[in-house]
Amino acid sequence: MTEGTTSVAAEGSDTLTRLEQEGEIAADYLEGLLDITDLDGDIDMDVEADRAAVSIISDTGSRDLQKLVGRDGEVLEALQELTRLAVHRETGDRSRLMLDIAGFRARRREELAELGAKAAGEVRSTGAPVQLDPMTPFERKVVHDAIAAAGLRSESEGEEPERFVVVLPA
């Protein structure tokens, strides 16, 4: 019994260490990017939901950092992919790292949770499925989680980049 417990604990510790390493690599990469672009920002690292989470924040306000977010988070998505590639180059492992800049993803997560709750309420009251607008994989995941928390089912349909969530009655 003790061996199994030790093994599980060591395995969990190895995962945390790996995710912390991903965060460190990502932070170094992003600090270089901030230097090149001459933008001010601080890097915050964490581990959330079994993935490395890195945020770029600024004490002077997020106006400058908005350039790194782009319209509807398009630049942020691209930077996240580039950061994941930088981690992959260093570790050889595929990364599921999540990047947030100036709190964009945190605010978007709240908006999407509200959208999911509203759609769930509509499905409950009408009994009919509700189709939402196309979303990124991150956005769909947040909505799926909100729908599940409301006790309903949801599915993703369509092809990227027009993939969307359909909320279904229980």
TrEMBL record:
Keyword list, A-Z: DNA-binding
Domain R3H: 106-170
Organism superkingdom: Bacteria
GO MF annotations in UniProt: DNA binding
Identification of the protein by name: Single-stranded DNA-binding protein
